[in-house]
Amino acid sequence: MHVPDGFINAATSVGTGVVAAGGLGVSLRNAARGLRDFHIPLAGVTAALIFALQMLNFPVLPGVSGHLMGGALAAILLGPWMGAVVVSVVVIVQALFFADGGISALGVNVTNIALVTAFVAWPVFRGVLKILPKTRLSAMAAAMVSAFVSVLAGSFAFVLEYALGGVGGAPIGTVLGAMTGIHALIGVGEGLITATALGTVLAVRPDLVRGAADVELSGTDTVPTGRAVTTFVLTGLAVAVALVVFVAPFASPHPDGLETVAEQTGFASAAQEHPIGGPLADYQVAGVESETVGTIVSGIIGTVIAFAIGLGIVAVSRRRARSA
Amino acid sequence: MTALLEVEDLAYTYPDGTRALMGVSFSVAEGERVALLGPNGAGKTTLLLALIGIVEAQSGEVRVGGVTLEPETYPEVRRRIGVVFQDPDDQLFMPTVWRDVAFGPANLGLPAEEVESRTKEALAAVGMEEQADRAPHHLSGGEARRAAIATVLSMRPDVLVLDEPTSNLDPVGQRELAELLETLDTTQLIVTHDLPLALRLCPRSIVLNGGRVAADGPTAELLSDAALMAANRLELPYGFDPGTIAGR
Amino acid sequence: MSGVHAHALHYHGHSPVHRLASEVKIVAMFAFVAAVIATPTREVWAFGALAAILAVAVGLAELPTAFFLKRLSIELPFVIFALAMPFVGVGPYVEVGSLSLSVPGLWGAWNVLAKATLSVGASVVLSATTEVPDILAGFDRLRAPRLLTAIAGFMIRYLEVVVSELGRVRTAIAARLGNLSRRQEAATLASVAGTMFIRAYERGERIHQAMLARGYRGTIPPAATPALPARWAGTVAWIAASWVVAAAAILTS
After folding, report:
1. Distance between CA C222 and CA C140 in Å, rounded?
2. B102: which chain C residues are within 8 Å (Cβ-Cβ)?
């Protein structure tokens, strides 16, 4: 998800940079407003933690691994503003000091990895929590769904940027399919980790969870039973599949729309630099339909596989916990 | 001897109902070096935080150099009572040792030259001038402790309060730290589990247990009192006999 | 990424670049990267010229070539990323042996390769000649939001503390489970992340107490003004060279 230099053209990099600077500025102002001064060291240490967690890869499929992005976790724990600021700091430091993500792609990466994930995860988490019974398990389910959606949203933001000013001429349909497929899987990993992490925090220090600060949750002091875990996992699975089915086709008409917009609004330099305008237009008319179906199918298959893996992990760890 | 630090009937109950301090009283005279002993959970760390108003005691009083602790005097009291926390990773939070040692004086609003001279002076007092530009996480355990002490010395405190200054140090590091504390002529209150250290550095000890002062007297005497030691979960290292060592 | 040792980025020296104020170097790096990104893909000569300009900076910084190339190699993961492009791009295609490669894809791969290499090169010169605290102080002097640089400062300060804590927790779990499979790693990571957040929070509280104890009243004192000279003239000339190359490339394309 960390985009290198040269992947997105200059105009789009600058444009996204302006978006990122604006979003970060608003986040900073709002974070500072609710700021008790001990939040600064806290934010720094949390940023260090997210950096460290991002270094650990988890397997998605054989040969493909993802890592935690942390936007959803940060937003749920610290609130959307501080969450966005913290993950932005992580992304900026990674680019400046560790060449992880390009310097010119800072705007792209801050937008996709920090701002979009935090701003999508927060309302989804709050919304899902609102309609579920107020229990710890519900908060975990809400965290799972919001993390999953936030990762997909981040990948859609990338596809959008690529459609506006991507280099290399990969068909947007292909990019969308690949990004959605892989990020549906990464999203499941992100969801499981976010939910588990939140569950731990709720059990030990429920007062630290900003996203549930005004919600009285029951069952925070108990370990969920086997049946509850199964229900939780199955609910999460159903929501994830539903999202892939409904969100993917909704999003896929965007690229050709954006291509048109790009050509009309003088982002034509992008089209000149990588001559994909003509072929792409043809490709999309013929190809988007099947791409969409492919996206959905791969998304569903991927989601199911990842959930099977997740269930396996739960089963194994439970068995070990029992025998230990 | 005039009392420099006076603590009177200090009581604190945590929001969850845990009673950490139940009327603690003692005083420390100028130039004294006093050990604060007690088992885990005795309330030592709470007491240390209450001395400078980071936890606000529900009743009782703290006075240092004639200044009574209250919200208006927090800055003054925090300058006069210099607390060195147990984990140097918590104490040293700035990017370099120099900026960390300068943090306190800069907060006092001193002019830049004064901040610089105090920072130099404090680093010299702990023998860390050479490490001024290093990042705290590159320091050895002993160096980190000395830097942590310098961060407080630069504020020229009346009383130096140290929380477990020798924990996590190897024996040589412990000895070196003890030697350093001996060279400092600031009044000291040393919270420790390290009874030989208390015996070496502090003529007088206060034993805190269950949020109350259980004993207050000459260190060698307290450490020789088997009943008192057992009642307060204090134990000397195997083979250590305070009677055979010249205490102070 | 195995190391997060920010200090390992630095190459000790006393070159003119080392002795340049950090804010000047930050501006130079961003300006150079902007020139690189603005340069059209197919003006291959221009990338050669930009590489030469970067080489001047590396030379002035007295960085050994081996050190520079080694540090540059951290961009390798992205090179692999770029190599996929000729295979997924659209036509026209070019036949290379039995492979059919997308021409726009090949140009895309070149674009990422050239631009990422030059940009990473510029950031390597910055981090090799400037200590991390200096870089943050430079951002402060450039009027970057204080909240941002303060959080970044704490983050870098506590990165190694958190990483070693994380390592200890993973070792403790591995010691009980035997060697972890990748899958178990994921489960471990999940269970550890929450615990680690609580620890991070509690450390944040303790740091804040230590700050209060030393008279903190809401603002972190800034680093002293730099003893280092700004030397804007030379830096601006260097930046201008890269912009002239970019402009020429845009005009000739």
Report:
1. 8
2. 221
Q: B72: which DSSP letter?
A: G
Q: Which residue has the tokens 């502090």?
A: B202
Closest CA relative to residue B94, chosen from B151, B54, B40, B56:
B151
Does residue C165 have a pLDDT over 60?
A: yes
Backbone conformation region of residue B239, classed left if phi is above 0, alpha if psi is from -120 to 50, else beta: left
pLDDT tens column, C2-56: 344 555 677 888 888 888 888 999 999 999 999 999 999 889 999 999 999 999 9
Predicted TM-score (pTM) of the model is 0.79
Instruction: Determine how β-strand B33-37 pairs with β-strand B204-209.
Output: parallel
Measure CB to CB from residue B95 to each of C153, C221, C224 and give the nearest one. Answer: C153
A15 in Cβ contact with C166 (< 8 Å) = no
CB C77 within 8 A of CB C143: no
CB C126 within 8 A of CB C106: no
Nearest 10 degrees: Cα torsion B56, B62, B67, B70: 20
Q: Is B136 on the interface with C (CB under 8 A)?
A: yes
Euclidean distance between CA atoms B217 and B206, whole angstroms = 7
Is residue B11 within a helix (H) or strand (E), and if so which, with residue range? strand B3-13
**What's the DSSP call for residue C223?**
P
pLDDT digits (tens, 9 = 90+) for A256-313: 333 333 333 333 233 333 223 222 222 222 233 444 445 455 555 545 554 454 444 4
**Domains by residue range for chain A, with CATH:** 10-319 (1.10.1760.20)
Comparing CB atoms, the residue among A4, A10, A104 nearest residue C81 is: A4
Which residue of chain A comes nearest to C160, CA vs CA? A48
Q: Structure tokens of B232?
A: 């307060």
Domain residues for the domain of B194 are: 3-244
Domain range list for chain C: 6-140+228-252, 144-213
Tell me phi and psi for residue B8, to 5 degrees. Answer: -130, 110
The answer to whether B148 and B84 are in contact (CB under 8 A) is yes
Task: Give A98 or B154, the one with higher predicted confidence.
Answer: B154
The enclosing domain of B128 has a CATH number of: 3.40.50.300
Interface of C to B at Cβ within 8 Å reads 7, 131-133, 136, 153-154, 156-158, 160-161, 203, 206-207, 209-217, 220-221, 223-224
Q: Could you report the per-residue pLDDT of A20-64, keeping only the tens digit for each?
A: 999 999 999 888 886 665 578 888 888 998 988 887 766 665 555
Domain count, chain B: 1
Q: Rounding to the nearest 10 degrees, give the CA dihedral for residues A41, A42, A48, A54.
A: -160
Whether B179 contacts chain C with CB within 8 A: no
